[in-house]
Amino acid sequence: MKVKKVKIGIKTLEEVLRDTGEVMKKIARGEKLKPVKEPEVYFTSFEAFRKALTPKRLELLRLIKSKHPSSINELARIAKRDVKNITDDVKYLVQIGLVEKKETNRKIAPVILYDKLMLEIAV
User: Fold this and answer.
1) Global pTM?
2) Closest by alpha carbon to 52, among 22, 82, 93?
3) 3: which residues sit within 8 A by CB, 6+ positions away?
4) DSSP alpha helices (H): ranges in 1-123?
5) What is the Cα–Cα distance from 60 to 110, expressed in whole angstroms?
6) How many domains does the chain have?
7) pLDDT in tens, 32-47
8) pLDDT tens digits for 70-106?
9) What is the CATH number of the domain that holds 36?
């Protein structure tokens, strides 16, 4: 089985701006950019990471990956949680790129297209 990874890291705002500036300079010079091998999600601090990926949200990722719910309502039933809270959590996970939504038969199903999350923290 091929494993797709999502890299999760901690970067300061200054580091993100510096990296973005370097990419923009390369584009301005007409250089070709290397394709991204794996998606990356960065947080500004470990505390921001902890607030974003709470135990309940990590449990949702596991349930989406293992149970393949056909809708948000089904995910809420599986998780035994309120639909509104599940909807809010899934919406956030979509915003940060860890979940995608797939529309089928007038239902929106949460989908995960990777097999592994990797956390990288620079010291």
Assistant:
1) 0.74
2) 93
3) 114, 115, 116
4) 13-28, 46-52, 55-67, 72-79, 83-95
5) 10
6) 1
7) 888 877 778 888 888 8
8) 999 999 999 999 999 999 999 999 988 889 999 878 8
9) 1.10.10.10
Q: Which two tokens stand for residue 48?
A: 């921001």
Domain assignment of residue 55, given as a range:
5-120
Phi-psi region of 46 (alpha: psi -120 to 50; beta: other; left: phi over 0): alpha
Question: What is the reported pLDDT for 1?
Answer: 46
- 10 Å CB burial of residue 41 (0-12, 13-18, 19+) is middle
Tokens linked to 115? 């097999």
- Max intra-chain CA distance, the chain: 53
Q: What whole-number distance in Å separates Cα of residue 114 and Cα of residue 112?
A: 6
Closest CA to 67 of 80, 54, 85: 80
